Amino acid sequence: MKIAFIGLGIMGKPMVRNLLKHGNEVWVYDRKEENIALVTKDGAKAGKSNADIITKADVIITMVPNGPQVEEVVLGKDGVLDNAKKGAVLIDMSSIAPAVSQKVCAACAEKGIRMLDAPVSGGEPKAIDGTLAIMVGGDKALFDEYQSLLLQMGASAVYCGPIGAGNTTKLANQIIVAVNIAAVAEAFTMVKKAGVDPHLVFEAIKGGLAGSTVMNAKAPMMMDDNFKPGFRIDLHIKDLNNAIETGHVCGSPLPLTVQVQEMFETLHADGNGSDDHSGLAKYYAKLSGTKIAD
Prior knowledge:
Elements: E1 2-6, H1 12-21, E2 25-29, H2 33-40, E3 45-46, H3 50-54, E4 59-62, H4 67-75, H5 80-83, E5 89-92, H6 98-110, E6 114-117, E7 120-121, H7 123-129, E8 132-138, H8 140-150, E9 154-161, H9 165-193, H10 198-205, H11 213-224, H12 233-250, H13 255-269, H14 280-288
Parallel strand pairs: 1-2, 1-4, 2-3, 4-5, 5-6, 8-9
Antiparallel strand pairs: 6-8, 7-8
Helix pairs in contact: 1-7, 4-6, 9-11, 9-12, 9-13, 9-14, 12-13
């Protein structure tokens, strides 16, 4: 399959590599030439611009930071609407506000371009090993047609409803992850201040009801004082902003989400926005004067 892939950040690069492993012809473009170089050495083909690769593809995949970037790539100059083949398919795998997905899809439909919104969860490690969780919105028949392609990048690709449902699902995911990380940081800070070894607590509780994929991934990072980003705080701020906006539109209060968002904003203000979101441990260290790590 001929694929144009736009956006070669932390997630985009390994996703391209997995598409290449399955024998696809993948054309790539990114504003950073070094990102292009990192995937062309694995077999991707470099384009000169978004427009250049869009004209070559049957499927266009976008993996960019937020809604404004999606609108620019699709609706803007040299974008998808002006350059895609008739009947082409756009799969936007960015995490954006559902309302933006709906707006972009409507514009695509006027040009005969079909679209799915298909954000992902799992961070860089699961992007690398091709086990992302992919949540998809759009026409069910279109999802059925391209589910196998999505599964080249993920362990699951689940249909969630009409266009925008994928991103609504992703926002729910991001709320649960953020509040869970905050709870882990809060609990393990208490443990450390109480004089109990956090490593022993982790072993004791991870098999019980408190155990979770989030705790298994993030508690060891907190205990090692390792905040190398798999998913940056600044990106989680973006997602929670979209969640809060969506909650306001549909009349769903999000008090826990707002609280964790303010924690993230504090970390950003302290210069930690590029840390992994497990860096919420730093917020509690600032409050308590105690780090979880030794």
